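Closing statement on the nicotinamide-adenine-dinucleotide sub-project.
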Amino acid sequence: MAKPIKVVIAGCTGRMGHALLECVFADADLALHGAVDRASNPQIGRDAGELFGKNAGVKISASMDDALKGADVLVDFTRPEASMQYLAACEKANVKMVIGTTGFSAEEKALITKTAEKISVVFAPNMSVGVTLLINLVEQAAKVLAQGYDIEVVEMHHRHKVDAPSGTALRLGEAAAKGIGKSLDECAVYAREGVTGEREAGTIGFATMRGGDVVGDHTVVLAGVGERVELTHKASSRATFALGALRAAKFLVDKKTGLFDMQDVLGFK
Ligand code: NAD
């Protein structure tokens, strides 16, 4: 049997961090090598398996440099400012990286692309297999319905989410824009309030809802005259993202450099 892949988890005490730990513990092809969170986190120094009633033999640490020593891949679901520091640490340690964090600026995304010339990176705002399929379906639908249909992206997430629209909604918007032969920047409408005037043809509108414990709902509406098509994905558990991220970690094993997304991981490209 091949040796298990040595995985470090960043943001290990967060919502996604917990889902990732649980999935790593359940997968014999993966071994938890490091668990990192910010220095102010009260769980620093505790065993990463404690919450799951087991001794993982890995202490939660604030030092990414230490955690990356001898590791194969870092899986990061934190905040952009942390992810950018961790990206630099991965480059220095020559460790592969799966980035699930959302909310990056254009400059930060450019730096991720540049760093992927040195190490291999999977970067995707939504690691679920279902959403990856939805992205393909949306591009296809937008291409077929490019004339006479208005495209809107609607999303809902739990009350703790800090960025809007969600990274997934933006990715779906990009797929729709590609389908109608545009870039999202030239046709996105992110907010409407007051007397907005009639809807401009060829734009892609976004609507955001926040509340409760919704893990992640996305619908792309293509509304024409006399009919509308709605393509929807609903995530019911964070395990879907964690399992996708760990599938991405396995995909990276034989990749030395390059920037990949979930379309690559699932072989859609
Ligand atoms: P969370 O707030 O529950 O967890 C964030 C973790 O990051 C915490 O452990 C926190 O201590 C740590 N952190 C925050 N700022 C930090 C810093 N400056 N330095 C070091 N550590 C820091 O959030 P979550 O719900 O787990 O989501 C985390 C990220 O993952 C968000 O950007 C979210 O949008 C994204 N997300 C992506 C997917 C996907 O499939 N790609 C799915 C779910 C969530």
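The first helix runs from residue 15 to 25. With this model delivered, the sub-project is considered complete and its resources will be redirected to Aim 3.
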